[in-house]
Amino acid sequence: MRRFAGMGKLSVLFVLVFANLTLSHAQPESIYRLPEGTRISIKLDVDLSSKVASVNDTFLASVAKPVSIRDRVVIPIGTVLEGRVMKVERAAAGSQNGELKVVFETLKIADQTRRIEGVPVVPVTVSSSKGFAFLSIVAGTVVGAALGTTSNSTSGVLLGAAVGAGAGSGVALLRKGKEVRIRKGEEFEIELKREVTLPVLDY
After folding, report:
1. What is the tens place of the pLDDT at every residue in 48-81?
2. Is this structure's pTM higher than 0.85?
């Protein structure tokens, strides 16, 4: 009898554990948690540029589109975020573009602040422009070849082309790259790299 009673208790325990696991998986997504990977559309309140920014500069941004969970807006438009500049590289000669890395660290909701880790979904970069360098070299080659023809010899043409190409390359190397800039009011997305627990409000 005791053996059967023990097996009965064990069966009940298994049923309770199974029921608990089933209920935990069936629970709806909490409106007080923003899971890792959540994307938020934001816009800066100021201009930000690799030309003037410095590492550890802070700046403000605001939510551009509401974030909803279970059809309830949990982060309304206008919610304030604070960001920080993590890395800056100025544009330099040789068509070297600037670089700017930022991270968003706080989210302010109803006078309460939550720590976050949000990064731009698309890195803040400028498109690489090699057209000028290529055209400078080609143009230099053409001019050099034209000058070489004045000698009326094949060697003169080849020498002129080489000199012209070298001059074109020199001009290209002196050209400065582009600075990275995020304009005030420009909308872009950030992605949360860790879960954020929101304050308990009357949503």
Report:
1. 999 999 999 999 999 999 999 988 999 999 999 9
2. no
Q: Which helix (H) or strand (E) holds 12?
A: helix 2-26
- Long-range CB pairs of 59-67, under 8 A, 24+ apart, other chains included: 59/83, 59/84, 59/85, 59/102, 61/104, 64/187, 65/40, 65/41, 67/34, 67/38, 67/40
Report residue 106 as tokens: 């706080």
What are the b/e assignments for 161-189, b being 16+ CB within 10 Å?
bebbbebbeeebeeeebbbbbbeeeeebe
Tokens coding 47: 């201009």
DSSP letter at 57 equals -
Residues 171 and 134: their CA atoms lie apart, in Å, by 11
Q: What is the CATH number of domain 34-128+177-197?
A: 2.40.128.260
By the 8 A CB rule, do 26 and 38 touch? no
Tokens of 43: 């816009």
